[in-house]
């Protein structure tokens, strides 16, 4: 059984990405940056057991999401272009 036909240069699209594709890529970049920031915040503090840790984790998550939307590392901008 033959495999899939390899892509040829004339079959590749040279049109620019659509606006909704750029927006989806930008959002994915923001979410990825938020995940990185959340992990950095978690590892920056000592691991102490207690009731306060849950609240700290919630605060870290919200801070990471807000910072991720600002795209401090530039990943979202690289993926989705400047908005």
The description of the largest β-sheet is: none
Per DSSP E runs of 2 or more residues, the count of β-strands stands at 0
Query: How many domains, as an integer?
Result: 1
Give the overall pLDDT as a whole number: 77
Q: Work out the helicity level.
A: 55-70%
Beta-strand content = under 5%
| Low-pLDDT ranges | none
Shape: elongated
Order of helices and strands: HHH
Structural class: mainly alpha
> What gyration radius follows from the Cα positions, in whole Å?
19 Å
Total helical elements: 3
What is the terminal-to-terminal distance?
A: 46 Å
What does this 3D model show about the protein?
This protein is an all-alpha fold and 83 residues long. The chain has one domain. It contains three helices and no strands. It has helices at residues 19-44, 52-70, 75-80. The longest helix is centred in the middle third of the chain and has 26 residues, at 19-44. The N and C termini lie far apart (46 Å). The model has no long low-confidence stretch (mean pLDDT 77).
């Amino acid at each position: 059984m033959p495999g899939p036909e390899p892509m040829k240069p004339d079959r590749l699209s040279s049109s620019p990405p659509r606006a909704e594709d750029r927006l989806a890529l930008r959002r994915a970049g923001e979410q990825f940056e938020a995940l990185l920031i959340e992990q950095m915040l978690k590892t920056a503090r000592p691991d102490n057991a207690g009731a306060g840790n849950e609240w700290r984790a919630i605060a870290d998550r919200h801070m990471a999401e807000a910072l991720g939307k600002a795209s401090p590392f530039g990943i979202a901008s690289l993926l989705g272009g400047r908005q």
